[in-house]
Amino acid sequence: MDGMLMLGFAGFLGIIKILLMALAAFGLFDAAFRREDAFRAADKQNKVFWLIILALALIVSYLFSIIGILPAIGAVASIVYIVDVRPALKQVSGGGNRWGRRRGGSSSDGPYGPYNGGR
């Protein structure tokens, strides 16, 4: 009975470890595709800082057991990026996708609709 309990607990920790790695990987790839000036405009450190922090979080979550201080720090860093930094970057970039464009619009759209050149 104890063996089954430990196996179940190890499986649960494995799932948590995979989730933390996915969280760090998502943050890392998202930060990699954001523009450097958006980080400065949002006043959220800089791009290189977040790339290093999120890469370390991914490495630590891969190498170490989930029970420890380093994976917890990595998880907190990933969550801070996703919950605080990412929305600020999206707001500075115009609220659109990664490239600052809104879906469905054209490049000639203004804030109140299409720009027709004053015709």
Task: Describe the fold and architecture.
The chain has 119 residues and is mainly alpha-helical. The protein is built from 4 helices and 2 strands, in the order H-H-H-H-E-E. It has a two-stranded antiparallel sheet with strand order 1-2. Helix 1 packs antiparallel against helix 3 and helix 3 runs antiparallel to helix 4 (69-92). The mean pLDDT is 81.
Q: What structural class do the secondary elements suggest?
A: mainly alpha
Look at the structure and give the mean pLDDT: 81
Low-confidence segments, ≥5 residues, pLDDT <50? none
Helical residues, percent = 55-70%
User: What's the SSE pattern?
Assistant: HHHHEE
Give the total of domains: 1
Number of strands: 2
Q: In what range is the share of β-strand residues?
A: under 5%
* Rg over C-alpha atoms, rounded to the nearest angstrom: 20 Å
Q: How many DSSP H or I helices?
A: 4
Oligomeric state of the chains present here: single chain
Q: Termini distance?
A: 80 Å
Strand order of the largest sheet: 1-2
**Can you tell me the overall shape?**
elongated
Q: Give a short account of the largest sheet.
A: 2 strands, antiparallel
Protein name: DUF2516 family protein
Organism: Streptomyces similanensis
Biased composition (Low complexity): 105-119
Pfam families: DUF2516 (PF10724)
